[in-house]
Write the structure tokens for this entry.
Amino acid sequence: MNKNIIKLTEKHVAGTYGRYPIALVKGKGSKVWDKSGKQYIDFVSGLAVDNLGHCHPAVVSAIKKQAEKLIHVSNLYHIEPQSLLAEKLTSLSFADKVFFCNSGTEANEAAIKLARKFFFDQGKAHQNEIITMHNSFHGRTLGSLSATAQKKFHTGFKPLLPGFKYIPFNNLPAARKAITKKTCAILVEPIQGEGGVNIPDPSYLKGLKKICREHGILLIFDEVQTGFGRTGKLFAYEIYKTKPDIMTLAKAMAGGVAIGAMAATNRVMKSFVPGTHAATFGGNPLACSAALASLQVLTGKNFLSKANETANYFLKRLKEIDNPVIKEARGTGMFLALELKKPGNEIVIDCMKQGFLINCIQQNVLRFIPPLIITRKDIDSLVSVLSNSLVKLNNK
């Protein structure tokens, strides 16, 4: 049964993904099933999207109710679920206003435009350069791709858009040195995701904020992957006690439904006036209703504290794996990684054969981004399988 779907995909779907040879058709909680009925425990969660697990009852119920009332109308009119979601997000964060879109890359495009427009409105059109970090990932549209400082993503798409400068991550002297009269903002992931789950020094983000204030430029946090409980807090900036001027969000916001957002202070967001930016499907009633339901669960009593306890246990178990092929186990919250001394894709395949979905990035970093509801029992089962797989890899 899997083979039929795979053939259809290969024949009719653009080949932009290196897909594994299974077709997933059902999900519940931390588990998914393929077309043949095989069960997998999911430690990828739709690439950090399904933070509540698959088909959470609260999200499913909200989608059903909203779909029977109103699925889409234009942003030419006021949309009740959108207004309620914006109120909720601003009450939970530093931000005063929110722009809604459909994805992380769109959220970052909006942030780039807003930063440049903010300085344009002050008569400083020349101040349009944005500093980003090596091994960052901000999306694949041309603007966010140009902000992404990884050469492998640039191949075949040059010329990139001008106005970006790349510097090392977690390096405050490099940030200071990079700023010129053209600089308008620093754009950074609080923890780099696709770059390898790279965690900065505790003082790094606070140091960037100080530098930005000294030079009168904006600080933008890309929280597309770190947001909505992934790092143990609702937003990662809370861990580092550093509020940005602009924050981008997506992935886990709506429990699996596509949505993105760019949140900012009134001081900055005032530069977005009618005609400056838009998204036809941005903030549609269906996605916003799903997001409201998801946030209600995420912010419920003890939800994140329980998830943190499980995450600490997970990291402890990863650190207990004794194998010379492991370079480092690291992570924050349920955003964890095992960096290997060898390529790790065969570990992914071996785990998949044994009913566990994991992810490999940067060729040798195993990334674990399970639903926040994952159990210790599931973690123990994965660690057992993982340990055996790593022994086989080390012996090669």
